[in-house]
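Below is one such record:
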Amino acid sequence: MGRLVVLALAFLGFLLLHADAQTARRVALVVGNGSYAEAGTLANPVNDALDIADKLRAIGFEVIEGNDLGKRELERKIGEFSDALQGARAGLFYYAGHGLQVDGRNFIVPVDARLDMPVKLQLEAVPIDEVLDIMEQQTKVSLVFLDACRNNPFARSLSRSATTRSATALAGLAQFESTRGSFIAFSTAPGAVAMDGTGRNSPFAAALLRHMAEPGQSINDMMIAVRRDVVSATREAQRPWEQGSLLERFEFVPGGDTAQQPKPAVSPAPASQVAALERSVGDEGAIEKFLRENYLVPDARRMRETVRRLYGSSATIYGTRYGSEAIVKVKTDWFAQWASWSFGLEPGSLEVTPHGKDRADVVFAMKYDYVPKDKSAQRLTGKARVTLELVLADGEWRVASETSQALE
């Protein structure tokens, strides 16, 4: 029931429980392996993984992450990822570290791997295609980003010890034989070696971080921008490459929405200006009135009018953009389950951060209580921390973006 409550709160309990909205979940597994027992240390994979994980969270992904993982730890993380993918629309796997190909099959190298002989490969490494297969079986969209082609001592040692009957390990990664509804991005061309980078991030990770959150950009357009940056940064020594079989357009930040992007730091405004801004956004005034008289009392009998009043033509929920008609349908279906409901603003919890005269970030604690029509169903009661971005349009406040988190 805890999972039900968390999902319910995302739209005051009536948006994300709809089947269509359930599929909007996006789940990522992010792994960076740098501290190898047998192959020394790579400087940037852990930095790359940490920064990519933060970026994905900022744009609405659920992220499972692990760094410097041995084989058993890596397999556990993959299992956790598999469980989390159930019901998700999209899955993403990002890996930075050592990888190699043997007879055209690609492998992740855990940090505790001992690969002095080709026969040990199946015992010591993890096939990437097995991770991809898990994703393809559970999601409509599978995204894989592999910065795993760095100059690899394992490939060299395996090649030296190979016999005519054993597999030969090669530097770089190979093209995957087949994919279903997938997009696979390599940090460099098949069989080529990628750079670890001299700064905090590899050239590939730095370019991904720069372009991933650009609003309204398809993943194909993003990779063009990433490839251009990497080619420039490496003086054409490295050229990212991708293969894919996506059946629908994918955008990391849909619909041109910028609400999830971090706001640039600015110098503190004079106290008089801050006071004026607070008055303009109605701190504990107009905004509290909007919450109490509109946001916390949705009219289920006039849902289309309610949505237009609260959200305008669209709104972003957990990083995903919804049009007003989609919101109306889901809300109508949700409220049909309940005999009554009530929401309340926790006294003293309202925090308002103004951003000019027509925009404000709002955080507050909300009490909720749903009484089901089905007497055998469980009543939902509790409290949530709600975070909104509000915009002023035609003299009225509207919700531009919305998230929430259950409180104990």
